[in-house]
Specification:
Number of helices: 3
Shape: globular
Strand order of the largest sheet: 5-1-9-8-7-2-3-4-6
Largest sheet: 9 strands, antiparallel
Helix content: 10-25%
Radius of gyration: 15 Å
Length: 151
């Protein structure tokens, strides 16, 4: 089960470039339900996600580089590229996944935080640098971004 909140970021925090970072490329084979393939640095995955905004089922299966390349050629829509910076949130045990998009969505920045329970997610107070909470609108779900070009 994935339980997460998502925020639109207007101004990134100073020094975020020094945080641990991963390079991500992902594409979608289906968006209803979500079936995604992802290259994260040198790892490859196929992911299934059920419907939902705050909470949804998520299953990850490893892929080989060859299987990823084969499926990438069959993907619908845009291939999303982003740098994911990881920032621990003090003693809470939570981590901010701060995504800076490249390519078609150059300049888009989103922050996600995953939680152990829905109660923890709903009672979360975001850091000051977080912008608008877009969790419940669905407008910034990556599967939706893959279906249309940035306006």
């Amino acid at each position: 089960m994935e339980i997460e909140r998502k925020y639109l970021i207007e101004t990134p925090p100073a020094g975020y470039e020094a945080w641990s970072c991963r390079s991500i490329e992902q594409a979608y084979l289906c968006t209803d339900p979500v079936v995604r393939i992802r290259k994260e640095d040198d790892s490859f995955y196929l992911t299934y996600k059920s419907k939902g905004l705050l909470s949804r089922e998520e299953y990850n299966l490893p892929l080989t580089r060859e299987a990823y390349a084969h499926l990438l050629a069959k993907a619908d829509g845009l291939v999303l590229a982003k740098s994911r910076y990881l920032c621990p949130l003090g003693s809470s045990g939570l981590t901010v996944e701060f995504d800076v998009f490249h390519g078609e969505y150059e300049g888009l920045m989103l922050a996600e935080v995953e939680f152990p329970t829905e109660e923890a997610a709903l009672s979360f107070t975001p850091p000051d640098w977080f912008g608008r909470d877009v969790t419940f609108s669905g407008e910034y779900q990556n599967s939706r971004l893959s279906r249309c070009k940035k306006q």
